[in-house]
Inverse folding.
């Protein structure tokens, strides 16, 4: 999977370069707000991807082994 990560990085750089070129062209044509929209979509996607990956790791880490024996008291009711 190491090669796949490198390819993702290259694609991300290519997307950012394309957005930079489009930004320059749009500013020359007096449509300057569009690049902010494009960048917000890109960064929203990156944040969602990171959140989804972290959520998957969190779910795997919370699995409980029910076959293990319990140690110590479970709970005590105090009246």
């Amino acid at each position: 999977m190491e090669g796949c990560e490198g390819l993702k990085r290259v694609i991300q750089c290519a997307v950012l370069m394309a957005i930079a070129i489009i930004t320059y062209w749009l500013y020359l044509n007096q449509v300057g707000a569009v690049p902010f929209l494009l960048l917000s979509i890109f960064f929203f996607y990156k944040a969602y991807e990171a959140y989804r990956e972290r959520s998957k790791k969190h779910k795997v880490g919370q699995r409980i082994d029910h076959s293990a024996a319990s140690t110590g008291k479970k709970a005590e009711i105090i009246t």
In short: Residues 2-52 form one domain. The mean pLDDT is 80.
